[in-house]
Amino acid sequence: MAELPMARPSTVETPPMPAEMRYPAGALAGDYARAGAGLALTVLPLALLPVTPWIAVPLGACAVLFAVFAARTAQRQMTRLTMDGDGLRADGPLGAAIRWDKLSDLRLRYYATRRGRDDGWMQAALAGGGKTIRFDSNLEGFDAVIERASDAAGRNGVALSPVTVDNLIALGIEPPDDPNEEASAS
Amino acid sequence: MLGYVIRRILIMIPTLLAISVITFVIIQLPPGDYLTTLVNEMQSRGEGMDQGRLAMLRESYGLDRPMHEQYALWLAGMLRGDFGYSFEYNMPVSDVVGDRLWLTAIVSGATIVFIWVVSFPIGIYSATRQYSLGDYALTFLGFLGLATPSFLLALVMLYFANVWFGTSIGGLMDPRYLGQPWSWGKAMSVLEHLWIPVIVIGTAGTAAMIRRLRANLLDELHKPYVVTARAKGLPPGRALVKYPLRVALNPFVSDIGNLLPQIVSGAAVVSVVMSLPTTGPMLLQALRSQDMYLAGSFLMFLAVLTVIGVFLSDLALAALDPRIRLGGGASR
């Protein structure tokens, strides 16, 4: 009979990583530049020219998106992530803490704007205990957090989506066994 | 996903600006301008126009200004909803276009829905029952659809509708509704006439989509993970829908971006043949007569459709399958 996922011991040692993880200044500067450029391209025409509603509405919607993006970048600048054997904690605006033994979902997505889908970035979402922590691959120590989260997901019997599994493999992290497959095999 | 949307929009806005520059340059490329064409036409009829009046017209239309000034005025005007002046019709472009833009949008939207609704089940059927009688029949129909030019299909349908039913299927509404304001009767009339142009314009696209979905799905269905899933006793429907179908949909979704402009521009000849009051025939005429603002507005409309279509298909792809492709690299 297959071993119950919950009973599996942790096999991952926390790799060396900074005690406090944050987004590097270069990545944040790039995001601020994007938000600024976007706001300039959308708000300036709306403010300086009489714009027909057919164009004003999409421009206004884009301006709101860029403003939200600027706010999110500021939130990321103020956020510090810390990881230990018990869980992951995000301190700052919209902060949260997730214990590894309460981890109930791990999603890892990859986005790229180029046609060849290279030079993209990963977006991770960890959920557990009613809290969600989102961060992307610009974060220092991203790989270590994902490796630890993947291990915790395996021990907690969390079923990962095929997309997340493929992205884990691409990062060089062995994904945990699918608990549904284990159950059907037994 | 927000970061992705932001980056895509930031690519989209300069792209549209670049397209507007290229469009404006292209419509200025032919020697002369609308007034030159007009004078030549008048001279061919043995008439003439004095140089003073010509200079006055050139000044009043802004044709004597440098190209960059004309472009700046055109662009600022578009933001205000003023797409310029049609020299040929002596009316603002927005008034000339009138209902045509909406009718084009209706025909294009209905054609896209038709292509998807028909090609999706047929593509799945052909892939899951490869080399069956049904697959062969549908493949034959698909190749026939691909090989038949849309305008020829339109001519054939016009002919048989006339010979067999004694009716004309040209146009997009009853003649009594032409130029009339929108009403329930006019909308119903458009719906009654819509199915024929939709079939004519959509046949080639449907056939192409069927072939593409069939090929993609067959590739996926022969992969080891599907064989393993079947061997483990996963029901056939679930083994199809759970993963192979989703992966096979990727190229299908990425085609949305190209579908919109193809339908609008590709339908121009069909519209001429079937007397459809859409933008295609007007664009052709505007290009021939160098009615620069009218032609430029149509070309910009096509460009905006393309850019928005590609944007939407990229968003759908990112939501459907946000996987890394081995060989690419994630930036840190």
UniProtKB/TrEMBL annotation, chain A:
<protein>
    <recommendedName>
        <fullName>PH domain-containing protein</fullName>
    </recommendedName>
</protein>
<keyword id="KW-1133">Transmembrane helix</keyword>
<keyword id="KW-0472">Membrane</keyword>
<keyword id="KW-0812">Transmembrane</keyword>
<feature type="transmembrane region" description="Helical">
    <location>
        <begin position="51"/>
        <end position="71"/>
    </location>
</feature>
UniProtKB/TrEMBL annotation, chain B:
<keyword id="KW-1133">Transmembrane helix</keyword>
<comment type="similarity">
    <text>Belongs to the binding-protein-dependent transport system permease family.</text>
</comment>
<feature type="transmembrane region" description="Helical">
    <location>
        <begin position="292"/>
        <end position="312"/>
    </location>
</feature>
<feature type="transmembrane region" description="Helical">
    <location>
        <begin position="136"/>
        <end position="161"/>
    </location>
</feature>
<keyword id="KW-1003">Cell membrane</keyword>
<feature type="domain" description="ABC transmembrane type-1">
    <location>
        <begin position="101"/>
        <end position="311"/>
    </location>
</feature>
<feature type="transmembrane region" description="Helical">
    <location>
        <begin position="9"/>
        <end position="29"/>
    </location>
</feature>
<feature type="transmembrane region" description="Helical">
    <location>
        <begin position="101"/>
        <end position="124"/>
    </location>
</feature>
<feature type="transmembrane region" description="Helical">
    <location>
        <begin position="194"/>
        <end position="213"/>
    </location>
</feature>
<dbReference type="InterPro" id="IPR000515">
    <property type="entry name" value="MetI-like"/>
</dbReference>
<dbReference type="Pfam" id="PF00528">
    <property type="entry name" value="BPD_transp_1"/>
</dbReference>
<protein>
    <submittedName>
        <fullName>ABC transporter permease</fullName>
    </submittedName>
</protein>
<keyword id="KW-0812">Transmembrane</keyword>
<keyword id="KW-0813">Transport</keyword>
<dbReference type="InterPro" id="IPR045621">
    <property type="entry name" value="BPD_transp_1_N"/>
</dbReference>
<dbReference type="Pfam" id="PF19300">
    <property type="entry name" value="BPD_transp_1_N"/>
</dbReference>
<dbReference type="InterPro" id="IPR035906">
    <property type="entry name" value="MetI-like_sf"/>
</dbReference>
<keyword id="KW-0472">Membrane</keyword>
